[in-house]
């Protein structure tokens, strides 16, 4: 893996399945922004918003623990449907933490959001990266994707992103080679093994997960799309040891079938962003859909644990390759 370039900027790029006008309004309309701004579990109250150069947005973020976070954003550039520049993280009692520049570009009826957060030093940027990760701040942009999907298509989705220090070919292997896939996908504290695996378009897999004691879960997946190296789509169902469809062993009203879409995008020679979109598939009752929606916090926790395991596995795999290049079997 390439060493990280130290920079005083933090970059976030997302592609949203909505036109620029829709995304811009989701950002700038106080009623809409209240539906998604902030990490999962946070809510928002806007006190005033003056969207113009020199104007301010005064709001309070309410944490799930009951703590309030007052904020005052000052706008320096406002180009409708195109560009926002503002200071973030300050209020009447403290200076802003960093300067934010957001560019909105329409690409084939989708919107590319390119955001940069500029801090005084690379060290300050690294501290903010750690703070954002610990606070789950990146889920803000996942919540925006979910809000847009609901508003544009009536879909209730769960979305989560993470950028990994690995080339896209290696990341594709992590998702399509059972040898690697089984090492990190299961929830924290569980181990996973494939009883059969045919990971290709039209193929299927049957797997087993256990916490090493009394909890045992079986599941199966059917692969609908595999486009090397950018996209993998599959359905998932819980089942018994004979591969008969069953229900989630700890959530009987969980949807019977889930649709998972994995999108891989290069963010540099040795960086890949992984986007997971999860939604109920097929016939779904209102109770099942409500269970899915209420479980988004737990889904974030579960996928975060899996992604942490993937980061550790990638580091271990690449270290093994460096020490024994002639014996490395990363792509086998």
Label the overall shape: globular
Structural class: alpha+beta
Largest sheet: 7 strands, antiparallel
Give unreliable regions as ranges. 327-332
Biggest sheet: strand arrangement:
1-7-6-5-4-3-2
Radius of gyration over all CA atoms, rounded = 21 Å
Mean pLDDT comes to 91
SSE pattern: EHHEEEEEEHHEHHEEEEEEHH
- For the terminal residues, how far apart are their CA atoms? 18 Å
Strand content: 35-45%
Helix content: 25-40%
Number of helical segments with 4 or more residues: 8
Describe the model.
This protein is of the alpha+beta class. Helices cover 29% and strands 37% of the residues. It is built from eight helices and 14 strands. A seven-stranded antiparallel beta sheet has the order 1-7-6-5-4-3-2. Strand 11 (216-227) and strand 12 (231-239) form a beta hairpin. The longest helix is centred in the C-terminal third of the chain and has 28 residues, at 296-323. It is globular, with a radius of gyration of 21 Å. The two termini are 18 Å apart. The model is unreliable at 327-332 (pLDDT under 50).
In brief:
The chain has 332 residues and is α+β, with helices and mostly antiparallel strands.
Structural topology:
Layout: E1 9-16, H1 20-28, H2 30-33, E2 43-49, E3 56-62, E4 68-79, E5 83-88, E6 98-107, E7 110-118, H3 122-135, H4 139-153, E8 158-164, H5 168-176, H6 178-184, E9 191-197, E10 204-210, E11 216-227, E12 231-239, E13 258-268, E14 271-280, H7 286-294, H8 296-323
Antiparallel strand pairs: 1-7, 2-3, 3-4, 4-5, 5-6, 6-7, 8-14, 9-10, 10-11, 11-12, 12-13, 13-14
Helix pairs in contact: 5-6
